[in-house]
Amino acid sequence: QDSKLNAMLPDDVRKAGVLTIATDAHYPPCESFADDNKTMIGYEPDMWNAIGAKLGVKIHAVSTDFDGLIPGVQSGRYPMAMECISDSAEREKQVTFIDNSYGTSAIYALASNTTISDDTATLCGLKTAAQAGTDFNDVLTAITTRCKKSGKPGLTIYNYPSADAVLLALYSGRVDFVMSDAAAAADIQKHAPKPIKIYTNDLIPKLYTGMVVRPDQKQLAEATLAGLKAIQADGTYDKIMEKWDLKLLELPNPMINQATVQPLPTPVP
Amino acid sequence: MSNPLVEARQVIKRYGNVEVLRGVDFTVQQGEVACLIGPSGSGKSTFLRCINHLEKIDGGTLTVGGDFIGYRQQGNKLHELRENEIAAKREKIGMVFQRFNLFAHKTALENVIEAPIVVKGEKRQEAMEHARSLLARVGLSHRVDAYPAELSGGQQQRVAIARALAMRPELMLFDEPTSALDPELVGEVLDVMRDLARDGMTMIVVTHEMGFAREVGKTIAFMDEGVVVEHGTPERLFTAPRHPRTRAFLSKVLKA
Amino acid sequence: MSNPLVEARQVIKRYGNVEVLRGVDFTVQQGEVACLIGPSGSGKSTFLRCINHLEKIDGGTLTVGGDFIGYRQQGNKLHELRENEIAAKREKIGMVFQRFNLFAHKTALENVIEAPIVVKGEKRQEAMEHARSLLARVGLSHRVDAYPAELSGGQQQRVAIARALAMRPELMLFDEPTSALDPELVGEVLDVMRDLARDGMTMIVVTHEMGFAREVGKTIAFMDEGVVVEHGTPERLFTAPRHPRTRAFLSKVLKA
Amino acid sequence: MRPVPAPAPDFVVVPARHPGRWVVIAVIAVIAAVVLRSVIINPNFQWTVVGHYIFADIILMGLLTTLWLTAIAMLLGVVLGVIVAVMRISDNPIISSAAQFFLWFFRGTPVLVQLIFWYNLAALYPNYAIGIPFLAPHLLHGSVNDLITPYTAAILGLGLNEAAYMAEIVRAGIMSVDGGQAEAARALGMKRITAMRRIILPQAMRFIVPPTGNETIGMLKTTSIVSVIALSDLLYSAQTIYSRTFQTIPLLLVACIWYLGVTSLLSTVQSRIEHRFSRGHIRRSR
Amino acid sequence: MRPVPAPAPDFVVVPARHPGRWVVIAVIAVIAAVVLRSVIINPNFQWTVVGHYIFADIILMGLLTTLWLTAIAMLLGVVLGVIVAVMRISDNPIISSAAQFFLWFFRGTPVLVQLIFWYNLAALYPNYAIGIPFLAPHLLHGSVNDLITPYTAAILGLGLNEAAYMAEIVRAGIMSVDGGQAEAARALGMKRITAMRRIILPQAMRFIVPPTGNETIGMLKTTSIVSVIALSDLLYSAQTIYSRTFQTIPLLLVACIWYLGVTSLLSTVQSRIEHRFSRGHIRRSR
Ligand SMILES: Nc1ncnc2c1ncn2[C@@H]1O[C@H](COP(=O)(O)OP(=O)(O)OP(=O)(O)O)[C@@H](O)[C@H]1O
Ligand SMILES: Nc1ncnc2c1ncn2[C@@H]1O[C@H](COP(=O)(O)OP(=O)(O)OP(=O)(O)O)[C@@H](O)[C@H]1O
Ligand SMILES: [Mg+2]
Ligand SMILES: [Mg+2]
Fold it and tell me: Which stretches make up the ABC transporter domain (chains B, C) (predicted)?
């Protein structure tokens, strides 16, 4: 605990000594329920606990369906939400991001499918799926654009409401490959009923992901950012990312609303 | 003879544009049995329903025991009452329907005790005792726990009479109480009504049972096309009807 | 006289453990009008319903036109028919109910043409013409487009008769066709039935209208407790009933 | 009875007054005004965003999906529901148990599971083959995934599920029709099935229509469950947008506005149908 | 009529045979066996996983949530539904329009939206204050977020929504009771509301129970929508597990088994209640 950091917190949070964070604990390895179905595990829980310790508050994490998440933040029911939410200019109009890592995606296919490779050309004309409303769809659109440019047929894209529905479509042979979070690779491979292979692609961009607060909660955002920087400084951040095998996604110089302050390049199809 | 319980003057009732009652004049004395006869559609039921204000009248005056059922009188102003205020006034008027209308989900006994308990707030025990004595009076002591669907028509109608009597009414209205019954069963209901008349109950009976009307009725009124065409004692009306319409009607009914 | 259209021998019908018909013997000749009388619950309706196999009998034999309605005869074996095979055989038997049972969602005309079209496959045009003539015959030409709820009881019953006649039946069954009617309206239905009898229709009529039974009935059968107690010509039965139960019943009904 | 008395003295009738009503009207009006005002000025509702999306292509496409899915699922539900209801009250014990099993199974499992099951039939049975044993063992065969498109899965899942609920409604309706009607039909020589179709069912409609209105309006919202099989209805289209832009509340408002519109329309249709089927049923005075 | 003929010759009655039935039974049995076998041996169903989770604490906790949410929501729905239905057919135009508005609004919007709305009322109105103007302006006040817990939001959302659907069902039931019953009650001096409570509603129950059974069984599944306000019912608990383990199909099977069990129970209860309310209503022979 750092009393200087503690002083940065808004009065109500500091007095209560508890910070409520909303999440949807259905996305390993970001967060999911442990076998007891009470404890949340994942790199984000580790991170929010570490930051909470620095700020001198207990973290109270609540799992809710995504549809309730943003209204919950906007109504003040939850001061903060954290769910591997990727930062974008559009979203920054609604909430303020405290970015804490990179996020990226990967291509998953059945190992029995030997025609697919890292080369975009091998994907043209196939059926694919991704979770609705995610940035994965932008990648799929980019792949289609490149295929069309080279005179090949584009992708047929299906959208599902959850990551597991996307994977089920892959296992049942309904689609040839899917696009999902790269961070989840280990879990997916471990639990898949059929062998899975993972591919990368030069059209897959890097994004910032972070926690979100209501735009008028400047003070909370600044305090959280300070807490994040503190755990980076003392090496806790490194340990967490290493533990979850995510060293590649470490964000060295976190900021508030980084997607507009320091935009990342988008690969050109 | 100077104590009219029901007094109707120039009662008018319309449904939409149709004038169903076109100025009914009708008086019944305390303790008297008045029979209403007339062809189908002449307005007999409608008039009966006006008496206890199941229908609102559109003209004329209609009092029961000197009281306007649907209004509160203040000087020469009649303030219309609301449905719930009228409900309380209906207690003193019993009504028996052609189709019995017993409460289908309640046994005979439950049918009889229902209104005394929920309307008058009688104690259950008291109401039960009274109900049992009424059901005995109409000859149904052995059927108190039967549901209406398990009773014959005649038995149902007798329960309906007991149900109306349970409210200790001053006036009983009967709307063709036997016309839905098999001929065999008619007798048992008329017997009960005869009995009531003997005990001095004021009754208005719409009926096609000319024998009953002749025997029990103190006066008979013949209605046609929304007016009382003719009235008088049974002897006079049945033997020397004055109006041609009365004559035509009687010849048709008495022949059948 | 040697041509029985309906022949019942020792017909037995049970509901659960209760024997409702306890060996009914009954024969009706072609072109004859037979009336069934008897107290309530004696099994008159049940027997009528057995004739067109709305109820299955549990013993005895019952034929219409020499044909077992519910069975196919092969040698001395009776093969039970399935419901749909029986349906076809019911065509030749018309039935009129006490409560009319007109199809509530269809106009008078539609009620009459329904069965000829869907059962017999008559052309709509033909069926309409026939229906109109039948409705004219029962005096309802002006009400062909009315729904049952818009008709008086007597009118409804006349439509019901026209509906049964539309199937050109060989036999008509009437189950107390006038007992749900106001006395004024009884006449119009009985007139239609008289007319039918005059035209030679074979009819079985359960009725409480003793006047009609006496006038039109060729034979009268008195039923009590599930058996035909006594039968004979109207003159004989009404003036000199042999059985004490017949006597008791007649005295009660004729008095009312 | 007395001789007719002189005409009644002229009373003046004062109509019943309902002072309470006016108070209630006033209170409701005030509350409505306050709520309306706060809804309009409350920045959380982001009315400009609502205005921007209300006629957006993706929303309209979603609405279309909602509408045709509802229409087809209800059609299938009603038709199958009537069949199952009639089977359920059949005298034939096999037919009636088959119907009961159908009811039990499809009412008893969540429609989500049914959808996932149909859609992913291929995970369980990747290929199908219909044939005549020994002669032509593989007359028809192919991949189950080709056979079951998202559309067929959606229609099967929603339709069969709805059929189970409708069957219960239709059964209750049939039981409410007076027994004399069936009797009269049988006495005229109609087969059971004809009597059912021509006489009983049309009269049962009076009892069937109101709960069916409920089911239809419910189905309008239930269709959003097809998102699990990659179809996008009205609500899900809104969700897709706000999961990207985080404008949850205004986009839910957009969906609500459309739902309310369609519901109003359906309610009007319902009362028309109700009116139509009450033909011949004049209620006795109350 | 002829003299009674000699007793009938002894015919032998051969009961109707239904050869079709046996064929159908055989076919159904074969199909059932094939399906059952393929369900049992198909590795995709992962029966060991099903066995592992069927009595898992989290599943049982979810089941409990489902059950009490269904119970409370249906209770609120039925009670409010009856009130709204009675208001809807009131002679008083204000009361009846208020009821109509309620129906329109709550049937017309998705329950998801209603839940989010209630739960996040604070986004719109962060604080509440109830008081007497001028005298004690802030008799009761506080944060709306403290007032509306997930539980109150779930009960309000599901209950009010259900009330709208129930109101329509109750209205249809009331309309089906013979008008003579109300008339008789009025003639005995009962107030409208008494007649409704003691005479009309008990008889309307016959028509109300079957669709209410539908609603209850539907509600059992609808409760899973409370996941948006951080409550976890049976289905959502299963989803929580498989979102981690990706054992989608066996966990859905676990949920289905419980749903089927509860549905069977409810169906039994329903037919008992139906039986009870048919008291005094002997159907005339068919
Ligand atoms: N609720 C109503 N709306 C419109 N017209 C009505 C209504 N009730 C009755 N009428 C009409 O009023 C007239 C009188 O009906 P009423 O029932 O009083 O006659 P009635 O003398 O009792 O006949 P019946 O002997 O057939 O019972 C009839 O023409 C009838 O059609
Ligand atoms: N479906 C049934 N189940 C059980 N008992 C029945 C059934 N139908 C009729 N009964 C009984 O069978 C007996 C004969 O009834 P039925 O209706 O044939 O008499 P009825 O002579 O026509 O009498 P009514 O003149 O009252 O019509 C009665 O005791 C009746 O209670
Ligand atoms: Mg009348
Ligand atoms: Mg009978």
Answer: 6-250
Q: Which amino acid is at A177?
A: F
pLDDT digits (tens, 9 = 90+) for D205-244: 888 998 999 899 999 988 888 887 778 889 888 888 887 7
DSSP B235: H
Give me the DSSP letters along D193-235.
HHHIIIIIHHHHHHHHHHHHHHHHHHHHHHGGGGGGGT---HH
Alpha-carbon distance of B178 to B98, in angstroms, equals 7
For an interface test with A, which of E147, E242, E243, E245 has the most A Cβ atoms less than 10 Å from its Cβ? E243
Q: Give dist(CA C198, CA C137) in Å, integer.
A: 13
Residue D276 neighbours by CB under 8 Å, 6+ apart: none
Domain spanning E49-124+142-285: CATH superfamily: MetI-like (1.10.3720.10)
Ligand lying nearest the CA atom of residue C152: 1
Looking at residue E218, its amino acid is G
Q: Is D283 close to ligand 1, i.e. is its CB under 6 Å away?
A: no
Distance CA D234, CA A67 (A): 15
What residue's CA is closest to ligand 2, atom 26?
Answer: C40
Cβ burial, residue A10 (10 Å; 0-12/13-18/19+): middle
Which ligand 1 atom minimizes the distance to the CA of B208? 25
H/E segment holding residue B45: helix B44-51
Please tell me the distance from the alpha carbon of residue D164 to that of residue D161, in angstroms, as a whole number. 5
CA B144-B150-B154 angle, to 5 degrees, is: 80
* E184–chain B nearest CA distance, Å: 6
Give me the interface pTM, i.e. the ipTM.
0.82
Best residue among B19, B37, B46 to mutate for probing ligand 1, ranked by most atoms within 8 Å of CB: B46
Categorize the per-residue pLDDT at D9 as very low, low, confident or very high, splitting at 50, 70 and 90: low
A 10 A CB-CB count for D278 gives 15
* Euclidean distance between CA atoms C138 and C201, whole angstroms: 15
pLDDT value at position A68?
Answer: 79
CB B135 within 8 A of CB B166: no
Tell me if C226 CB under 6 Å of ligand 2. no
Per-residue pLDDT tens digits for E155-207: 989 999 999 999 999 998 998 888 889 999 999 989 888 999 999 999 998 88
CA B8 remoteness from chain centre: 15
What sign has the CA pseudo-torsion B95, B100, B103, B107?
A: positive
- Domain coordinates in residue numbering, chain D: 49-124+142-285
Measured CA to CA, the distance from residue C227 to residue B162 in angstroms comes to: 35
Taking the C-alpha atoms of residue E227 and residue E235, their distance in angstroms, rounded to an integer, is 10
| Residue in E115, E108, E107, E104 with CA at minimum distance from that of residue E155 | E115
Local confidence band at D43 (pLDDT 50, 70, 90 cut-offs):
confident
Q: What is the side-by-side strand order in the sheet with A105-110?
A: A156-160, A127-131, A177-181, A105-110, A196-199
* Token pair belonging to E131: 């008081």
DSSP label at residue C216: H
Q: How far apart are CA A179 and CA A105, in angstroms?
A: 7
Residue from C146, A33, A215, C241 nearest E57 by CA: A33
Per-residue confidence band for E130, with pLDDT thresholds at 50, 70 and 90: low
**Selected residues 191-210 of chain B with any CB under 8 Å from a CB in chain E:** none
Task: Give Cα separations from D234 to B219, D17, D239, E252 (angstroms).
Answer: 74, 48, 9, 26
DSSP per residue over A191-250, as a string?
H-SS-EEEE--TTPPPEEEEEEE-TT-HHHHHHHHHHHHHHHHTTHHHHHHHHTT-GGGB
Global confidence as pTM: 0.84
Instruction: Kindly identify the ligand whose nearest atom is closest to the C-alpha of B225.
Output: 1
Mode of pairing for the β-strands spanning D12-14 and B77-80: parallel
Within C57-142, residue ranges assigned H as helices are 83-90, 108-118, 124-137
